[in-house]
Specification:
Strand order of the largest sheet: 2-4-5-7-6
Oligomer: single chain
Number of helices: 11
Largest sheet: 5 strands, mixed
Helix content: 55-70%
Structural class: alpha+beta
């Protein structure tokens, strides 16, 4: 009996790998948002504060004094000058600096500059008094000197503020540089870990696929050599679990079929037909598993999953819980799985199409009638022709309650003499020397339906094989 293992799908393995990779890649981004971005924002805030302080110095030292001198010199009136607009600009920028500053020493300098600005505003308001005589002119000149003294103090205070802000910027720049180095080093370490994890994950997935397939391949070789006691353990991936179970069940059924004895000739012939089917299966399994192993080695994981599921579907319908009759829909699914598998191996030489009348899908049919015909079309039709050929599987429903199935290929075809030999080989007493595939189908049709195969072929154009059966619905 096969041992039980915890089963996980290949998709789960890949999904967990993708999640781990995304999480590792997101760590540097999160660190940037948590540490580097706030420090960068603070850096730009202090740069902006220095620019505002320089603007205040320029306005107070140059523009404001120039406006006041023109008033003192009588070149313009107090009402027409821009001194109030300039004072409002200085006051507004000092207020913004005070509200945005988060450094204690910087705030002390801004507060001092604000008090000087209040004093400056008092002097500027006095210039609004009219000038009547030489004495008043002298007084305004005195106030202008006071204004220059106050703006000089304000310039000194703001320069000290700029000096402190430069120190804060230097400190912040050092923090940014250290954080950048740390995050870069962490990103490099994470990249190395990510590469190692990706390699290990790839190897783990490949091992999880390749080892069970090699076990199944070894089992199929033993079955082909006649060892019907061979069994495979359940693998750790769910995509191969059903295939392994089906293969073990098929081996069990093969043993039961070989051990089964019947009394009458018809039962004996039916058992012989089943034995012939069992002889076909291991060779097909060996080739298919060999292709899957090759795909796994090429790391074509999606192709491995698709081909494995197609093989699982193929065996599920082949077994059919021991039933001899299945629905046309199941028979068509069986052929489709077979063609899907073979299209991987013979992609360069084969195309196929399946066209079955939907009215036939629930009719009952003896299982495994179409697949051997398709196999015959591949191996004796397309493989013997240069270039790519096509296989067409069709099912037609007739008004008289019968149904006709045909498998046509555009392969090498047969000349008239060869066609006569093949038709003669399908006779009941011929022994099937022209390949037991067609002979097997012909005998089964004769035993179960009293029907036979119709073969049409032309050299260089292809072959069409068909048979007609009664359409009986599922009860």
């Amino acid at each position: 009996m096969s041992k039980k293992h915890p089963v996980a799908s290949i998709a789960d393995h890949l999904h967990s790998s993708y999640v781990a990779i995304i999480l590792l890649l997101s760590i540097p981004a999160m660190l940037l948002m948590l540490f580097l971005f706030p420090m960068t924002s603070r850096y730009h805030q202090h740069i902006s504060a220095i620019a505002d302080a320089r603007d205040i110095i320029e306005v107070a030292d140059q523009e404001l004094q120039s406006e006041l001198w023109e008033i003192v010199a009588g070149q313009q009136t107090f009402a027409a000058s821009r001194q109030q607009e300039l004072m409002d600009s200085i006051t507004h920028k000092l207020s913004l600096l005070l509200s945005s500053s988060d450094h204690y020493e910087s705030r002390q300098y801004i507060q001092a500059a604000t008090r000087l600005n209040d004093t400056l505003a008092t002097y500027v308001e006095q210039f609004g008094h009219p000038v009547h005589n030489h004495s008043a002119l002298y007084s305004n000149e005195q106030m202008l000197r006071e204004v220059r003294s106050v703006t000089g103090l304000m310039r000194s205070v703001l320069q000290e503020f700029i000096y402190v802000e430069i120190g804060v910027i230097a400190e912040t720049n050092g923090q940014i540089r250290r954080a950048t180095i740390a995050i870069t080093a962490l990103a490099a370490v994470l990249l190395l870990l990510l590469l190692r994890y990706a390699i290990l994950s790839c190897r783990a997935v490949q091992k999880a696929i390749q080892q069970p397939i090699e076990t199944l391949e070894a089992m199929s070789v033993q079955l082909a050599s006649g060892n019907l006691e061979a069994r495979a353990e359940q693998p750790a991936v769910s995509e191969l679990s059903t295939l392994t179970h089906s293969l073990n069940a098929m081996a069990d059924q093969l043993g039961e079929l070989i051990e089964h004895r019947v009394a009458d000739q018809r039962s004996l012939q039916k058992a012989e037909m089943r034995t012939l089917q069992a002889q076909i299966t291991p060779h097909f399994i060996y080739n298919t598993l060999d292709t899957i192993v090759w795909l796994a080695q090429q790391q074509e994981h999606e192709a491995v999953v698709e081909m494995t599921m197609a093989l699982t579907q193929f065996f599920r319908i082949s077994l059919s819980r021991g039933r001899d009759y299945i629905t046309v829909a199941e028979e068509v699914a069986h052929v489709r799985s077979y063609l899907q598998i073979q299209s991987v191996r013979y992609e360069s030489i084969m195309r196929y199409e399946i066209d079955i009348d939907p009215a036939l899908l629930d009719c009952r049919i003896l299982k495994l009638l179409l697949q051997p015909l398709v196999e015959n079309a591949i191996y004796h039709g397309l493989k013997n022709k240069r270039g790519r050929g096509q296989i067409a599987v069709r099912g037609v429903h007739h008004p008289d309650g019968t149904m006709t199935f045909s498998v046509a290929d555009t392969g090498a075809g047969m000349n008239p003499e060869r066609l006569r030999e093949v038709r003669a080989a399908l006779a009941p007493d011929s022994g099937g020397h022209e390949g037991f595939g067609l002979y097997n189908i012909s005998q089964r049709l004769r035993l179960y339906y009293s029907a036979g195969l119709a073969i049409q072929s032309e050299a260089g154009r292809g072959t069409e094989i068909s048979f007609t059966l009664p359409c009986r619905r599922e009860e």
